[in-house]
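User: Let's play a game. I give you a shape written as tokens, and you guess the letters that built it. Ready? Here's round one.
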């Protein structure tokens, strides 16, 4: 056989690759002492650092076992996936439907899929609508699609959208930041602690929030479920990011509750917001772990999986792990903030430690701290995930079936753990605008949640792409970019409006901690839609009520330490 140029990749971590030339002197026969297989296994040990490689696959899941398998597979530029005994990771050609966006050939596509667009006042561009319609009508099993008022374009699939499917799961509709979401936590601070120039002083206290938190053993304990029967650990590589916010539009913001006009007397006070309270809103996800999951399960451009396929079961298991990892991540971010904000309270002492030593924290202390964090938590939701629900919501139980709700930038109206309706949800604008307090509603007018697919907007939504925002904002504030970080800087309002009354001020007032200038420009308030318009659209469609709003005082993005 002639020399063949191949690429070796780890089956478990397919981004880990190495080239290999298989010389003409090797044999296709795996039993031969000079076989191609033995060369590949040895190369995997040295180049990929695999300890005990034992199986070889090609894309699609075919395992190379016989001489005929190797002869058929070995061609220039083929990728050989090397396994340390684990099964093939990815979508098998015989187990899933490979789809190219817009080219789905399955008979289960729905060209007449119902589509709801909830926006009227909030602007939505044509590309977003095109992405929504194409996705709804070309992917198999889609039975309902919704555009929230914060809809904006994604790379292929829109953000701020919900797709309900029957019998099919579509990982790309969720994206790579699986489990990304938001959580509110209460603090012991008062309004006077963060108003005016004191906000700047608070911002200066926010240090020690980057980098790995404590030891891997401590992180594994933190990642246990509530009863301690299992861990959501993703392994040391990904767990090292636990307790960190991440880039992009992720943030942690210290806010004052300016208005909280309604309360639910049937709900504990802990799970509601009250005027003048100081809270932390944390927006973060599964960091790199979710992206790794998406990459592995869509390695062959696979978009869709039938629910009864083994590959779908495996994906959902990892998806759920990433969601729970992300929730624990938000808890740990809040702990690290509380350690800075309430340093005299020993309850939060573990948050102040970024110990990289080998000294492990007693499990009891870690678990007690976790319970204390739960006592400060108001609400925690995932807005990038897939969940199952009886569908349609308004139908009698005997007529309902299990459906999958895919959310990419859309907040659920129900608690994922109890399936009960949530009392309040955050609707953040940008770092220069308020966060609205929304209360989801269910009635005959919205088909008890069918109209909005049991979801609400998760934010204001981008009005400019990152590239456009960076260019526009850099030019607008040329030579004075630092003004964008100041809580006492008032800039011209781009989109003042919305309901009358307090809170429609979009002129800044937030001290920003962000030592990445590019990110300062990309995330400027002008890059986002008017959050009041988004909220008004939801109220107008009868899917939510506005119960109040919070004003940001300190917004944390990233600090180089």
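Assistant: Ready! My guess for every position:
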């Amino acid at each position: 056989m002639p020399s063949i140029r191949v690429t070796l990749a780890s089956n478990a971590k397919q981004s880990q690759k190495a080239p290999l030339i298989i010389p003409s002197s090797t044999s296709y026969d795996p039993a031969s002492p000079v076989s191609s297989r033995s060369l590949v296994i040895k190369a995997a040990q040295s180049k990929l650092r695999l300890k005990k490689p034992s199986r070889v696959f090609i894309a699609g899941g075919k395992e190379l076992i016989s001489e005929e398998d190797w002869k058929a597979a070995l061609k220039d530029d083929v990728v050989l996936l090397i396994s340390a005994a684990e099964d093939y990771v990815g979508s098998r050609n015989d187990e899933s439907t490979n789809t190219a966006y817009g080219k789905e050939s399955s008979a289960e596509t729905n060209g007449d899929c119902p589509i709801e667009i909830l926006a009227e006042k909030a602007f939505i561009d044509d590309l977003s609508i095109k992405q929504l319609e194409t996705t709804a009508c070309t992917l198999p099993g889609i039975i309902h699609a919704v555009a929230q008022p914060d809809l904006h374009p994604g790379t292929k699939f829109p953000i701020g959208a919900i797709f309900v499917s029957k019998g099919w799961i579509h990982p790309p509709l969720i994206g790579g930041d699986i489990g990304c979401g938001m959580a509110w936590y209460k603090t012991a601070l008062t309004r006077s602690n963060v108003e005016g120039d004191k906000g700047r002083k608070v911002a200066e206290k926010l240090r020690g929030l980057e980098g790995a938190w404590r030891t891997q053993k401590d992180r594994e304990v933190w990642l246990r479920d509530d009863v301690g029967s299992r861990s959501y650990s993703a392994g040391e590589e990904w767990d090292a990011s636990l307790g960190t916010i991440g880039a992009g539009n992720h943030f942690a913001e210290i806010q004052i509750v300016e208005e909280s006009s309604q309360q639910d007397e049937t709900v504990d006070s802990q799970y509601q917001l009250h005027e003048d309270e100081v809270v932390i809103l944390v927006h973060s996800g599964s960091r790199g772990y979710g992206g790794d999951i998406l990459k592995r399960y869509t390695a062959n451009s696979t978009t869709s999986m039938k629910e009864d396929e083994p590959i779908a079961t495996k994906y959902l298991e990892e998806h759920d792990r990433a969601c729970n990892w992300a929730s624990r991540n938000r808890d740990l971010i809040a702990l690290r903030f509380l350690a800075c904000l309430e340093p005299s309270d020993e309850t939060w002492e573990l948050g102040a430690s970024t110990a990289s030593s080998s000294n492990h924290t007693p499990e009891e202390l870690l678990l007690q701290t976790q319970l204390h964090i739960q006592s400060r938590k108001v609400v925690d939701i995932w807005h990038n995930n897939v969940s199952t629900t009886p569908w349609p919501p308004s139908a009698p139980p005997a007529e309902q079936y299990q459906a999958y709700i895919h959310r990419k930038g859309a907040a659920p109206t129900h608690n994922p753990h109890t399936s009960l309706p949530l009392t309040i949800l955050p609707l953040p604008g940008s770092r220069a605008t308020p966060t609205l307090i929304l209360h989801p509603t269910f009635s005959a007018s919205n088909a008890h949640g069918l109209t909005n697919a049991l979801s609400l907007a998760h934010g204001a939504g981008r009005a400019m792409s990152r590239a456009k925002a960076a260019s526009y904002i850099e030019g607008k504030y040329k030579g004075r970019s630092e003004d964008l970080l100041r809580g006492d800087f008032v800039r011209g309002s781009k989109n003042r409006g919305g309901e009358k009354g307090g809170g429609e001020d979009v002129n800044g007032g937030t001290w920003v901690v962000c030592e990445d200038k590019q990110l300062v420009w990309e995330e400027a308030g002008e890059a986002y839609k008017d959050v009041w318009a988004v909220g008004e659209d939801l109220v107008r469609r009868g899917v939510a009520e506005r119960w109040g709003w919070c004003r940001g005082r300190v917004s944390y993005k990233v600090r180089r330490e």
